């Protein structure tokens, strides 16, 4: 079997590949730490290495970081994924099944904060169902702290805002 860090990397790549979409760093971390695969320090080192090597890409939304597998990551998983034991794969698959609804919801409700000219920030708030956009709101705000706060609140407030828009527009 490979080094422990290599196994952690393969588990992360396996999870990302199986979902076919992004997963929040805290969800991946929770799985790896709860199963006792890794300690916190090694996990942070693993995240840094897989991002630096181009196996994953990250996206920050509010106060959360999301990872997605890259083409290089898929290639690495194809070449080395056989090193993951059957039990590890089963546990990862069980995790994805048990967390499926939460993972889909995280993908359906997105908030991004993008720097704009003059110190302003653009906030892009989205709700999707599958490949269909249900709602997208774009705001420009005067500073990063406000933009991050809006992004942080979006997952808990999006339904209320959607209902309010529908009520007031129809």
Task: State mean pLDDT (0 to 100 scale).
Answer: 90
Kindly estimate the percentage of residues that lie in beta strands according to DSSP. Answer: 15-25%
The CATH homologous superfamily of the largest domain is called Winged helix-like DNA-binding domain superfamily/Winged helix DNA-binding domain
What gap, in angstroms, lies between the N and C termini?
61 Å
Write down the Rg: 18 Å
Question: Taking strands numbered 1, 2, ... along the chain, how are they ordered across the largest sheet?
Answer: 1-3-2
What is the fold's blueprint, element by element?
Blueprint: H1 4-19, E1 23-24, H2 25-34, H3 40-52, E2 56-61, E3 64-69, H4 71-80, H5 86-98, H6 100-108, E4 109-115, E5 121-129, E6 132-141, H7 144-169
Antiparallel strand pairs: 1-3, 2-3, 4-5, 5-6
Features:
elongated; Arc Repressor Mutant, subunit A; 57% helix; 170 residues; 7 helices; alpha+beta; single chain
Summarize the structure.
This protein has 170 residues and is α+β, with helices and mostly antiparallel strands. Helices cover 57% and strands 24% of the residues. The protein folds into two domains: 95 residues, Arc Repressor Mutant, subunit A, CATH 1.10.10; 63 residues, no CATH class.
Describe this structure in words.
- It is built from seven helices and six strands.
- The protein has 170 residues and is of the alpha+beta class.
- It folds into two domains: 4-98, Arc Repressor Mutant, subunit A; 107-169, no CATH class.
- The chain has a three-stranded antiparallel sheet with strand order 1-3-2, with helices on both faces. Strands 4-5-6 form a three-stranded antiparallel sheet.
- A hairpin with a 2-residue loop joins strand 5 (121-129) and strand 6 (132-141).
- Helix 1 crosses helix 4 (71-80).
- The chain is elongated.
- The relative contact order is 0.13.
